[in-house]
Design goal:
- The chain is 32% helix and 17% strand.
- With 399 residues, it is α/β, with parallel strands linked by helices.
- It has a 10-stranded mixed sheet, with helices on both faces.
- The longest helix has 22 residues.
Length: 399
Amino acid sequence: MSGPRIIRCPSGLLPPGRLREVGRHLRSGGLLAYPTETVYGLGGLVEEDPLRELAALKRRDADKPFLLLLPDPQGPPGLVWNRCARRLAERLWPGPLTLVLSDPGRAFPAQVRGGSGGVAVRMSPAPVARQILAEAGAPITSTSANPPGGTPARSGTEVLEAADALDADDRLWVVDAGALPPAPASTIVDCTGRDPVVLRAGALDPSELREICPPAGAGADVDGRRPDTGENEAGVGDGPPDAATKDIRILYVCTGNTCRSPMAEVLTRARAVQRGLSGVRVRSAGTMAYEGSPASAGARTAVGDRGLELDRHAARLLGEDELEWADLVLAMSPSHLAAVEALSRGRCYAEVITGFAGDASGGVADPFGGSDDLYRDTCAQLERLIEAVLDRLEPGTDG
């Protein structure tokens, strides 16, 4: 078995020819050791084969996901960029800041998604890393180049020593940029909830973070609110989730906000309480709602059969404030989804509720003007869909 291939870049940058070789290697499923702004990282594309090989190489526990380095600040689709995450990225990227973002639609494989549903991402300022990411045109995984429990490598020589200890073969290429200067670990900020939570202080001053993104609630910026842990600089771990503290904000959208979405709102709220998911928050809105309109009589009857009530409901017109508030927007039909996407311009994660729940029916039909029995049927359909939605969102369901 031959060992890793070494690619040297003594000038501090990869020559164009070597860079193209590295890109082809990554696209073929290969793994790469490369210098970041702190230590040498190990990684590959976010695809099944390189993820499996990287986990085996690092002898990685399944509950410790890999961090992603991004080629650009827009990030891949599927992640939820709330206002705080966007502000921090705009001010501090590229730099030693790792953001944990929600992936409510599970767009990313389990190897990069923590138990609480977050994906850790960063934009590295390291010139070679940025070259490689630009050439790849896609995120690459990053974990420290060391055996489990070992010291992260800070030079090409230390990478080769680690590769030997890890029994790496020629599927691993090493980009050797020499010794890296000492540097503090990146700061890790969890942006999956209502307020930012510093999971690791790292290189950045917490007061700077608070200045950029002042917490909206009294419980913000408390280290260790969740049992997520940073493994070491080039990787971040995510401990077992706590369903009682998971903070997920769901916004249901229909047309007038008098039938489907308010029924979904009260049904979800009640079912979350039954499941003990105290962190689930729910709202509803309509794309053509008349502000303050009451829920329809059929909707009140249908939820009343279940011991719930919509007597105090007042319709809300969908706007940017609601979309900014939400972690997950569930639309009742494709046309509602199109309205959400046009208004949000990609700033929130949205799906048709049936698609998110794994139902192929294509949406929930409008019962407006129909009989009480039609409303009851719609309410029963929503109950089934909401059960599937909560199955996907409840912490700990997929590890």
